[in-house]
Write a structure and sequence with these properties.
Its cofactor is Mg(2+). With 423 residues, this protein is of the alpha/beta class. The chain is built from 14 helices and 15 strands. Strands 7-8-9-10-11-12-13 form a seven-stranded parallel sheet. The chain has a three-stranded antiparallel sheet with strand order 1-4-5. The chain has a three-stranded antiparallel sheet with strand order 6-15-14, covered by helices on one side. The chain binds 2,3-dihydroxy-5-OXO-hexanedioate (GLR) and magnesium ion. Magnesium ion (MG) binds next to loops. The site of magnesium ion has 6 residues, from loops.
Length: 423
């Protein structure tokens, strides 16, 4: 049996331009941070992974990278054990990369994820097959994504308006949706809520329904509402929403809401780790779990979650954060090879500049709201080393080291506080 082992791992933080997208903890800063992981092997292969770029996370990635030297490229169980072992001594907290919106996920799973993806990329290159084949084979050639709408300012404070302009009311949201659908062809829409009083967000959803009568709609206020407010919104949007995502904090609160509203509740906040599954199932708190390989421990552990969802009769969708092309490729292979991941997946893709990425153009993109599963070996995307260098320089010069939507909002409104629930 021919073996190949990891000889070197490089972790490079990068920054790419982001727009002033509003959410319930504040507003996106001018740059989003990511870390790009390159795993090299004795046989001369390289695998790619992408993850959060916050400082504490970077430090953990580097510790894990040292521990992964020598790992055999098919030994994913050994890789997971090495990461768990090295993190056992880590008493630091924070650095989640999600500005306080996803807090209970497993540190070991978050750190493992980009290495697992990179090892799968290498395995695919070794056997000449796409990652989706290593995950059981694709069930769909194209993976549908949803158009992710945000309330937003016209531009960053002190800067001119960006090409999307302001979206601060129902008309602005409908305009944004129209542009996004014209450009990408999305067949489902999600509105990031928790920004304005719930009545205004109900009005935005109803305006979307009037303009796009056939599109599935979702609303996600990231636990900005009390149980009572959530029930009020759920009843007001009966028959309108495909699902209501994280209206209120915690499994107990979600269960109370679920008992009183007609649509399924979805979550990427109260079920974010395997330990959350039993209590959420017992309480009947959610109908749909949004997977995310970045915090569920990679692609194979996301498929483990998919199996649990099928067993317990839960739907499965996919969460995203601001991301680049390596993540999009990984998300697409996963969704293509996971039978019950049949909701349109989230993506922040439209919010990044088309010319900013770390992969060579052409391998992956949107047609009619969907991404064709790359056919090449591994992830099917290639690192653009010059672009990686440019985005790393941008990281060094941008001054940001952690995602802090709340702190950025406070530079505009010093009295601003991130509170949950807010209404
Ligand atoms: O579905 C979600 O909760 C998200 O997409 C979380 C993200 O962090 C989103 O709120 C954002 O980018 O502001
Ligand atoms: Mg969410």
């Amino acid at each position: 049996m021919v073996q190949d082992r990891v000889t070197r791992i490089t972790t490079t933080p990068v920054a790419f331009h982001d727009l002033p997208l509003l959410n319930t903890v504040g507003v996106h800063e001018p740059f989003a941070l990511r870390a790009i992981v390159e795993v090299e092997t004795a046989a001369g292969l390289t695998g790619l992974g992408e993850t959060y770029g916050d400082e504490a996370h970077l430090a953990r990635l580097r510790g894990a990278a040292d521990a992964l030297i020598g790992t055999e490229v098919f030994a994913l169980n050994d890789a997971a054990a090495r990461v768990t072992r090295v993190l056992a001594a880590d008493t630091t907290t924070g650095g989640h990369g999600m500005s306080g919106m996803v807090t209970g996920s497993s540190t070991a799973d978050r750190v493992l994820s980009p290495f697992e993806v990179a090892l799968l990329d290498i395995q695919g290159k070794t056997v000449g097959r796409p990652v989706s084949d290593l995950l059981g084979g694709r069930l769909r050639d194209r993976v549908a994504f949803s158009g992710y709408l945000f309330y937003k300012w016209a531009g960053h404070p002190g800067a001119p308006a960006d090409e999307w302009g302001a979206a601060l009311d129902p008309d602005g949201i409908v305009r944004q949706a129209r542009t996004m659908i014209d450009r990408y062809g999305f067949g489902a829409l999600k509105l990031k809520g928790g920004v304005f009083p719930p009545e205004e967000e109900i009005a935005a959803i109803l305006a979307l329904r009037a303009e796009f009568p056939d599109l599935p709609l979702r609303l996600d206020p990231n636990a900005a509402w009390t149980v009572e407010t959530s029930v009020m919104v759920g009843k007001a949007l009966a028959g309108v929403l495909e699902y209501l995502e994280d209206p209120t904090p915690g499994i107990e609160g979600m269960a109370e809401v679920a008992r009183q509203v007609p649509m399924p509740l979805a979550t990427n906040m109260c079920v974010v780790a395997f330990d959350d599954v039993p209590p959420a199932v017992r309480a009947d708190a959610v109908g749909v779990v949004l997977s995310d390989h970045h915090f569920w421990g990679g692609l194979r552990r996301s498929q483990l979650l998919a199996g649990l969802c099928r067993t317990f009769g839960l739907g499965l969708s996919m969460h995203s954060n601001s991301h680049l092309g390596i993540s999009l490729a990984a998300m697409t292979h996963l969704a293509a090879a996971t039978p019950n991941l049949d909701y349109a997946c989230d993506t922040h893709w439209p919010w990044k500049r088309a010319d900013e990425d770390v992969i060579k153009p052409g391998a992956i993109g949107f047609v009619d709201g969907a991404v064709a599963v790359p056919d090449g070996p591994g992830l099917g995307v290639e690192l653009d080393r010059d672009a990686l260098g440019r985005l790393h320089e941008q990281y060094l010069s941008c001054g940001l080291r952690n995602r802090d939507d709340t702190g950025y909002m406070q530079t505009v409104d010093p009295s601003y506080r991130a509170v949950s629930p807010r209404w």
